[in-house]
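in:
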């Protein structure tokens, strides 16, 4: 089948990622982007879990009632592809596949994949930042040129990444960063501080997830501002889905998965936004 629109969602076998795929399929028919058949790549590290997620969506009662999927007469197909954003080789393989299948480019990338680990030590810090910061950054930089004119790139960050947890001087450094290398140097400084046992003296919290998401929000805003100068109409934004009831929040979240998916889906389909390089939560622009 020839598809008019193509999207990819990372970390989509469960939780918010699965909700994003589901709500993209439900919302696309009424979106202004709708100009024909729609393909969504649901990606995940584990192939068996990814394939199971596809089976779950194909039998989803709401999708069937809405006749959203092509199997029920709708516009959308959902296909699984393996992707581990902690691996440069995996990112490169997926990018090569997408470029081969869609040489004209794709329309939407939602970088949802991320990890939240218990404890605080060097292993937790390096693993968390490798996925949440460097992995998402690599996905962003590799796929941004592959987005069509008017495309949308959404990086799912977190309110945990707001800067009120940092020293005044460190917060100023975050806000003053005006390039990807500058933001990356802050992440590297955090890692070196953890190694040396001086990160708190350097103004960082003892929280790998929070620091990774602070860096992600910051670098996404930088890339979004840079992209806005290129005249392609591509919007790059960061967003927080909220405190969602998922495995990552150990079931303590107050939002449903569908509620958590709302902001990233609306940004992806152009129902909110219009500007690049912003941070969103609850469908509104927020202070980082």
């Amino acid at each position: 089948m020839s598809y008019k629109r193509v999207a990819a969602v990372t970390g989509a076998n469960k939780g918010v990622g699965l909700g994003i795929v589901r709500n993209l399929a439900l919302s696309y028919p009424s979106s202004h982007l709708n100009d024909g058949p729609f393909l969504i790549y649901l990606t995940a590290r584990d192939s068996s879990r990814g394939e199971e997620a596809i089976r779950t969506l194909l039998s989803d009662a709401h999708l069937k009632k809405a006749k959203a999927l092509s199997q029920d007469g709708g516009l959308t197909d959902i296909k699984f592809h393996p992707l581990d954003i902690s691996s440069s080789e995996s990112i490169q393989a997926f990018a090569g596949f997408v470029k081969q299948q869609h040489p004209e480019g794709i329309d939407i990338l939602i970088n949802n994949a991320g990890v939240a680990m218990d404890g605080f030590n060097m292993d937790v810090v390096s693993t968390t930042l490798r996925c949440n910061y460097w992995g998402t950054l690599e996905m962003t930089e590799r796929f941004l040129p592959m987005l069509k004119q008017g495309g949308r790139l959404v990086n799912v960050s977190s309110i945990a990444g707001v800067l009120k947890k940092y020293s005044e001087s460190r917060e100023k450094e975050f806000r003053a960063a005006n390039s990807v290398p500058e933001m990356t140097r802050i992440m590297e400084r955090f890692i070196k501080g953890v190694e040396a046992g001086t990160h708190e003296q350097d103004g960082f919290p003892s929280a790998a997830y929070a620091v990774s998401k602070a860096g992600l929000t910051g670098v996404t805003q930088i890339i979004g501002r840079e992209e806005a100068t290129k005249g392609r109409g591509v919007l790059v934004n960061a967003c927080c889905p909220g405190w969602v009831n998922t495995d990552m929040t150990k079931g303590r979240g107050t939002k449903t998965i569908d509620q958590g998916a709302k902001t990233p889906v609306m940004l992806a389909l152009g129902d909110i936004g219009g500007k690049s390089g912003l941070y969103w939560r609850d469908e509104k622009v927020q202070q980082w």
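note: Residues 5-118+130-159+210-285 form a domain with the Rossmann fold fold (CATH 3.40.50.720).
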